[in-house]
Design brief:
This is Bacteriocin. The chain has about 230 residues and is an alpha+beta fold. It contains three helices and 15 strands. Helices cover about 20% and strands about 40% of the residues. The strands form four sheets. It has a four-stranded antiparallel β-sheet, with no helix packed on it. The protein has a four-stranded antiparallel β-sheet with strand order 5-4-7-8, with no helix packed on it. A hairpin with a 2-residue loop joins strand 11 and strand 12.
Length: about 230
């Protein structure tokens, strides 16, 4: 919903000047609507001209017909209304609907849990992307996610955050401490499988059993790695 700001004077001696603030965060040009209500003014009152400008040092533009002015950044919009007798009425409003700064982030990895904190004090953090997967269920710009078996196979963990205005942070790269260990375990498993021979065909039951074995192996691998890392820290 558009936010409006209207100026009134005592005893209805001033036309109501409204400067509307647009919803959401904008990029490029943004139209700011300006309206003047003189329905409450004394009989015979008339408006000769409505002018507006963007910024204190901007140039006045006649917006009597259009009822709007265009801005390209966060600035104050000034409006002045001249009545039929030459009297001038003024109003202004600060419009803040642009966020052009890239957000920042910090990240850490402990016991297989990746913690990411995005930072943006203007439009806030709306999404976190980890190795191509985007998460939007955040709490105060923070994401905690358990690494999966797929994540163990990547040498680096690449992270970005996106703010409410659509700005994306610089790429944040974490070296994956699980990668080398997981690689060695995979090689050991392959060697063991090769030594036992390969099955020519695989039944549905065999496939189910293999998936269970892989899941069990992954959980065991994660547990052993966590224990190993805890010993090293100790």
């Amino acid at each position: 919903m558009l936010q409006t700001q209207t100026a009134y004077a005592a005893e209805n001696t001033t036309p109501a000047i409204t400067i509307e603030k647009p919803d959401g965060w904008k990029q490029g040009e943004t139209i700011i609507a300006v309206t003047v209500d003189a329905s409450h003014m004394p009989e015979g009152f008339s408006i000769a001209k409505i002018e507006a400008k963007a910024g204190k040092d901007g140039s006045w533009q006649d917006v009597t017909g259009s009822g709007s002015i265009t801005i390209t950044g966060n600035q104050t919009v000034y409006v002045r209304v001249t009545d039929g007798e030459g009297k001038v009425y003024e109003q202004n409003r600060s419009i803040k609907c642009y966020d052009t700064e890239k957000p920042t982030l910090s990240a850490s990895l402990t016991d297989g849990v990746l913690t990411i904190q995005g930072n943006d004090t203007v439009s806030g953090i709306t999404a976190v992307t980890v190795n191509g997967t985007t998460y939007t269920d955040l709490k105060d710009g923070m994401l905690r996610v358990q690494l999966t078996q797929k994540d163990f196979t990547t040498k680096q963990i690449e992270i970005t955050v996106t703010d409410g205005a659509g700005n994306t942070s610089e790429k944040y790269v974490l070296q994956n401490p699980y990668y080398e260990w997981a690689k060695k375990q995979a090689e050991k498993q392959k060697t063991s499988s090769d030594s036992n021979g390969a099955m020519a065909t695989t039944t549905s039951a065999d496939a189910t059993g293999l998936r269970k074995q892989r899941l069990h192996h992954f959980r065991r691998m994660h547990k052993l790695l966590s224990q190993q890392m805890q010993k090293e820290r100790g």
